[in-house]
Amino acid sequence: MSTETKNQAMAHALNQALRDELDTDPKVLLVGEDIGELGGVFRVTDGLAKDFGGTRVVTSPLGEAGIVGSAIGLAMAGYRPVVEIQFDGFVFPAMNQIVTQLAKYRHRSEGRVSLPVVVRIPVGGGIGAIEHHSESPEAYFAHTPGLRVVCPSTPQEAYALMRAAIRCEDPVIFLEPKKAYWSKGPVDHAAGAAPREALDRARVAREGDALTIATYGALTATALKAADELAAEGTEVEVIDLRTIAPLDHETVVASVRRTGRLVIAHEASQSGGIGGELAARVQRDAFFELEAPVLRVTGYDTPYPASRLEEEWLPGLDRLLDACDASLAY
Amino acid sequence: MEPTLDLRAALRDMILARRVDTEAIALQRQGELGLWPSMLGQEGAQVGAGSALRPRDVVFPTYREHAVAWCFGVDPVQLLGLFRGTTMGGWDPAERGFQLYTLVIGAQTLHAVGYAMGIVRDGDVGTGDPDRDRAVLVFLGDGALSEGETNEAFVWAAAQNLPVVFFCQNNQWAISAPFSVQSRVPAAQRASGFGFPGVQVDGNDVAACHAATEQALAQARAGGGPTLIEAVTYRRNPHTTSDDDLRYRDAAENDHWRDLDPVDRLRTTLLESGAIDDAFLAAVAAEEQELAERLRTGCRALPVPSHDDPFLHTLHTMTPELARQRDEHLAFVAAGEEGPA
Ligand SMILES: Cc1ncc(C[n+]2csc(CCOP(=O)(O)OP(=O)(O)O)c2C)c(N)n1
């Protein structure tokens, strides 16, 4: 196991997390399309088949229901499968297994059976991909009781949360922001897995007292940029990386909003029925009298994800985020 | 391999499992169960398959495998909870390897495949040690043959040579859809396209079902890979107690299959050969009475879960928001129970 702090891309940090868990627990195994020799289309499993063998890093037949459904059976047999769905847009054939089976078995067995399955899904846009390769399906999963939904924003978070997710007794939908796969940051491998509570807790990525931005995944970097720009004008913005979408740690956000009085929520997924609405509802319930401005959302629009030539404008970016902050501050 | 079925024991199992079914229907009529999927007519297939299991094997049932559950030692009272609305499961699947009933057609075929992958990884296949080698027996209906997931399960089982036996009870109907809607070829024939053996048996012949399952399970345990068994039988009752089967099928068809009833058939054969006598049947009938009594009182005594229950078993540890929702709900329920002021 590697022990020092490295400057590492998120894809490599994830690779290291998988490697370290494969090393630690013989019951962990990886299953997915093309994850063996090829190392996955994003190379997140690069080299793992070579080092751990084809029975622990398994290239599966092409079938998403099969990937998740068989992972359920493996978990019933005492294994801890970490499965890869190749792209966000291809998880839907497995939705039946995820929603009707994976999420419900603990409840159906009255707590007797845990299904510690991690479903890894590269998510989100902004990488110029074609159709079905830039989706943000998190709300579907977050709407399903019995699932945890995690989305890291930095290589360190990806490393520590992936290890925690694999050790967690609940099924975890682990969303890997594609746009962040190759952005680098320091990763402390010696710190190991994040404590399990990290899967329940948002993270304050930057402190401030004028306004709160709550976001997750690749947009966290954009929010921090916005905070930098506003700081240059003398406005200190707090940035909260939600980190887990289910459970949704609104308490950290509420505590922040009680101080700042203002909240802007940002996510790539389309607005209606999205996580932003849920967060806004909880914040107004718990911090109604502290709010100085309505909760604003900067999100993808309620349209199908557009052709990549249009995605830069369609996606919530720095300018739209700054506009929303200005609007909130103007109240 | 010589089949090992004890026909007297098989007859007893079929009669008692049928009694579970008829009692459950009666309980549904009395309003004690919301619904019951009857297995009347499928006892031969189920007892045949169920009696071929060994304790370390694992079963993935649909929602109609009451006689398999019986053979594998699941308490029949526990089968009722799901249909009474006291539980979403009803038994501990880890205790005997009889997994919970699956209502989503075909989903369990993939769980079976995954479990079989686990068995292979554990090294519990092909060791030659009868106390170690294991296999998975998964049940499906003829309707399930059309689901994509079932076909994926066939692909996976074949490609990885998994110790799994697919036991398809072709009871001719998927609710109102006849078998011809699902397939142009016999179910067993499908297996060859996936690259493993398919066997068709008379599903109303308990000995034939037992022999086929025993052989397929032995092959699977030995590392010989999957088999698809098609047991040709008939669902004599409506799909469930809510179904009206006379809207889609002819009573004459039912009469035809009643004459082929698996229980009557075995009883007649054993009586004629002198393997059983009236005393044997009287003893089984007495057991039936006891069982029926136990089901009636057991059903009414099934514990109603607490209002807390769904909250406790949603995630491994409760989240603060869920705890808040639980408290709100419990307060709401408590207020309701206090009645109007
Ligand atoms: C995925 C799915 N689609 C539809 C249904 C509704 N449904 C319940 S039972 C059934 C028919 C199943 O037929 P078959 O597989 O032959 O099993 P049988 O009931 O005859 O034992 C249908 C369509 C379901 N439970 N699951």
TrEMBL record, chain A:
EC class: oxidoreductase
EC number(s) reported in the record: 1.2.4.4
Limits of the Transketolase-like pyrimidine-binding domain: 8-183
Record keywords, A-Z: Oxidoreductase, Thiamine pyrophosphate
Highest taxon, organism lineage: Bacteria
Gene3D superfamilies from the UniProt entry: 3.40.50.920, 3.40.50.970
Pfam families referenced in this protein's UniProt entry, alphabetically: Transket_pyr, Transketolase_C
Entry GO MF terms: branched-chain 2-oxo acid dehydrogenase activity; magnesium ion binding
Cofactor: thiamine diphosphate
InterPro entries: THDP-binding, Transketo_C/PFOR_II, Transketolase-like_Pyr-bd, Transketolase_C
Stated name of the protein: 2-oxoisovalerate dehydrogenase E1 component beta subunit
TrEMBL record, chain B:
E.C. number(s) listed in UniProt: 1.2.4.4
MF GO annotations: branched-chain 2-oxo acid dehydrogenase activity; magnesium ion binding
Catalytic EC class: oxidoreductase
Name under which the protein is recorded: 2-oxoisovalerate dehydrogenase subunit alpha
InterPro entries linked to this entry: Alpha-ketoacid_DH_E1_comp (IPR050771), DH_E1 (IPR001017), THDP-binding (IPR029061)
Stretches assigned to the Dehydrogenase E1 component domain: 13-287
Keywords: Oxidoreductase, Pyruvate, Thiamine pyrophosphate
Catalytic reaction list: N(6)-[(R)-lipoyl]-L-lysyl-[protein] + 3-methyl-2-oxobutanoate + H(+) = N(6)-[(R)-S(8)-2-methylpropanoyldihydrolipoyl]-L-lysyl-[protein] + CO2
Record Pfam families: E1_dh (PF00676)
UniProt similarity note: Belongs to the BCKDHA family.
Main function: The branched-chain alpha-keto dehydrogenase complex catalyzes the overall conversion of alpha-keto acids to acyl-CoA and CO(2). It contains multiple copies of three enzymatic components: branched-chain alpha-keto acid decarboxylase (E1), lipoamide acyltransferase (E2) and lipoamide dehydrogenase (E3).
Necessary cofactors: thiamine diphosphate
Higher taxonomy: Bacteria, Bacillati, Actinomycetota, Actinomycetes, Propionibacteriales
Gene Ontology BP terms: branched-chain amino acid catabolic process
